[in-house]
Structures are given as C-alpha cells and as structure tokens.
Amino acid sequence: TYGKERVHELIGKLKGEFISQNVIDNDPFSDEFEELIFPPYSIKEIGGAKIGIIGQSFPFTSTANPKKFTKGWSFALRHESLQEYVDMLRKEKKVDCIVVLSHDGFSVDQELAKKVKGVDFILSGHTHDPSPEPIIVNDTVIIISGSHGKYISRLDLDIKDKKVVDYSFKLMPIASHLIPADKAGEDLIAKWYKPYDKELNEALGTTKGLLYKRDTFYSTFDSLIGMAIQDEMKCDINFN
C-alpha cells in the first residue's frame, strides 16, 4: 500500500487515465468533502464505436490496509452510483457499449453483474484468476485475465445499431522465457538487490521437494510457511 500522496504521484506519471467511481473524499474538513477523488468514467471512440468505460476500485481497501494509508478517502461497492453512471452513459452520452474496469474480485463482480443492469462487459481484477472462456452472468460478460503480465487478452466487438451483437475473446499466455530481458530493468534490480546479497544467498536449509509460489492458488511454499507458523505458535490449525 503506497498511501494517498504516492498514489497521486504515480498517477501523474501514468501514460493513460485513472478512473474510479467508488472512491470518495470523506474528510469533513476538506473542500472536496463527499466529492469523487478520481474521474468516474472515460469514453473512447474505437473503430467507429463509442465505448463507455467505468472504473471500479477495490471496495475493501480501507479495511484491508492500515487506516493511515487511506484516511480521508471512503471506499465502498456503490452499486447505486454505478447504475446511475451506466444509465447516464446510455441515455445522455449515447454510448454503444459499456465496460466496467473492475478491481472488485471475481466473486464480487459476479454479484455486481446481478445487481447492475446494462453493463456489457466487466474486466475483472484483484483475485488474479485466469479463464480461457468468458463467464456470463445475466447479460453481462465477465473477463478475467490473470495477473503480473502472464497473459494478454483480446476482446473483439461487433457493434450494430448502438448495441453489441457479437464478440470474440482470446486469452493468450506470455512466453516470458522467449522474450529478451530489458537490460536497464535488470541493472536496476541488481542495484537494489546488491546491499542484501549476503542475506538473500544464505542457505537456511535443504528441501527434498521443489518449493514454488503460485499466486492465489495452492503452492508448496505457502504450505511450508503455514506449517512453520503452526509449529512455532503451537497451534492445531492454520488457514492459508
């Protein structure tokens, strides 16, 4: 977690837009009290079609992190305001398609698709799940494309008479071992790691099996950490 100042600093360097309809100023002494922190949506004209994109930030940010990092900002699901933006983009801005760019998490986005009407696609993040096929909830198509640059997704839309009549989706894994490393990036990482070479290369033990980490899925390294904590704390059960 970076904190509000660092977030604004990074967004200032972003070569793109940062949008979110569910982060609000809740500092009663602020001039922006109860106003949105970020623009809620963006409209893109692509291939002759008008696409409305609404941002949805992780709604539990303030409870999943130390309060000091988000003090003065309010995070929530805010399905009611999301529905208002969907309706406004349809009726006033005359968009042909509505996409929600979401960091809710896959299970929460499934509920979003049930409660908010008129969303064509949800590009779902946070839980890091990849799925080669879209998941359809009511009339909303949910796309989940993994994380950490492991995949690239392609979504092609066929739009006629102000609505999506067909689409195609492809999830493509990135063969990172075939892509040449970026020299500047490698040098920077080596520079950061250099002061800790001794600690990072100290042998702490030997395992008979392979220890690996697989993001949100089960992994042997997660299992080892859980068992080590369980042994140290003398408890009967650990939740990974």
Automatic annotation (TrEMBL):
<protein>
    <submittedName>
        <fullName>Sulfur oxidation protein SoxB</fullName>
    </submittedName>
</protein>
<dbReference type="InterPro" id="IPR006179">
    <property type="entry name" value="5_nucleotidase/apyrase"/>
</dbReference>
<dbReference type="GO" id="GO:0016787">
    <property type="term" value="F:hydrolase activity"/>
</dbReference>
<dbReference type="InterPro" id="IPR004843">
    <property type="entry name" value="Calcineurin-like_PHP"/>
</dbReference>
<dbReference type="Pfam" id="PF00149">
    <property type="entry name" value="Metallophos"/>
</dbReference>
<dbReference type="GO" id="GO:0009166">
    <property type="term" value="P:nucleotide catabolic process"/>
</dbReference>
<dbReference type="InterPro" id="IPR029052">
    <property type="entry name" value="Metallo-depent_PP-like"/>
</dbReference>
<dbReference type="GO" id="GO:0030288">
    <property type="term" value="C:outer membrane-bounded periplasmic space"/>
</dbReference>
<feature type="domain" description="Calcineurin-like phosphoesterase">
    <location>
        <begin position="64"/>
        <end position="130"/>
    </location>
</feature>
